[in-house]
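User: Could you check the structure of this?
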Amino acid sequence: MQQDILINWSPQETRVAVVETGAVQELHVERTLERGLVGNVYLGKVARVLPGMQSAFIDIGLERAAFLHVADLMSSVAARHAETENGEPPVAIPIEKQVFEGQSLMVQVIKDPIGTKGARLSSQISIAGRNLVFLPQDQHIGVSQKIPLEQREALRQKLQTLVQEAAQGGSVGGYILRTNGEDASDQELAEDVAYLRKTWERIKEASVRLPPASLLHQDLSLLQRVLRDLVSERTQTIRIDSHEQFTALKAFAAEFMPAAAAKLQLYKGERPIFDLFGIDDEVTRALGRRVDLKSGGYLIIDQTEALTTVDVNTGGFVGARNFDETIFKTNLEAAGAIARQLRLRNLGGIIIADFIDMQRLDHREAVLHEFRKQLSRDRVKTQVSGFSALGLVEMTRKRTRESLAQMLCEPCEVCQGKGIVKTARTVTYDILREILREARQFDPKEFRVIAAPAVVDVLLDEESQHLAGLSDFIGKPISLQAEASMAQEQYDIVLL
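Assistant: Sure, the predicted structure tokens are below.
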């Protein structure tokens, strides 16, 4: 399936859309002031060691301390490699015997900060190139698991030879051949090795020169990662609407990715590139809960901190005669729509899909097969289980950065992210109880209630009898003041 990549650039924000058959499949956003941290290398300082959690908090100069687990320490990684070579379980070394407070440690971000959680770190540095991933502290030569097994050994031997020649008797380091490097020429691989080694030398030099909590290396920008990660043989065009960035990207592609350079095009149209292809409308829909299907059904997508739920609904009423077939077709369409929405919204973690109940086993198997087939197009790793006893499909999708909603939105100031607010009547009863509570502790001349107009209206109309009864009971007058700027749940009780 052919794809086009559209790039909308502005000084404050870069947006990239991957379009297939006229539909947006992926959307990537990078803001200058909120650029992601994954791949960045820092000279960190150990702020605190937690033996009970076998973790440490590392100061890397961010607002929140970053998190390093013992499993991500280089010594633990080396121990796991030793296990595969010797066939014996590695000896677990407690984190308190490996790091100490105040220690300087070179670390790399492997997960961006999300919500209240700090960045996740690893002390095993890896630098990604076009075809290779460089592991400077390792000596392992590996090949991507996605490359067919029968080709891996030959590619491993070829890479080993190239690396040895490039090292010229010095330290070799470890390399992993990426999936898109399967058909790379010796020259392309050699250029990648030279680029990665040069980058590592710059990082080492900076680690000696700079103080702790300093940035040593920043990962490629979104524009550069587009060429490195998103462009494939299926890519027809890469259109960008900035002449300055087109020139810079052309130079970068010519040096590192000549094949991608030929696909770059400068968009010169008068209309914004995202408007021309309806991308902004698609983004707006991707931020909503409801996704309509062509069959008349729809999805309801709810994202929480722990998991994401997707509910499939048929929509309109269907007759009993075609009921099973209608449900089957709706679920088949939903399988593709859910896979697309996961990519478009960049939803990760635990995901629960509640397909419409199907009685026939062959229908359930067909829907599950279609769901897995659609998810196989995802560049992010996914794992799918079968239907549970309750008819739910549970799956996981690797989460490495914030979702689209987390990046573009924030919790509502009124409902604080609940999605609902108390009714005016409920707030009215809260106010009456609060007045009674205050009257037992204080002895003012008067109670004045300042609340939203809808709440004041209820107090003056439907609840006026209860308000008057409360005033008689406490022996104090109660006055009301409507404040249009107040949200429905907000109120103040002033003692006069």
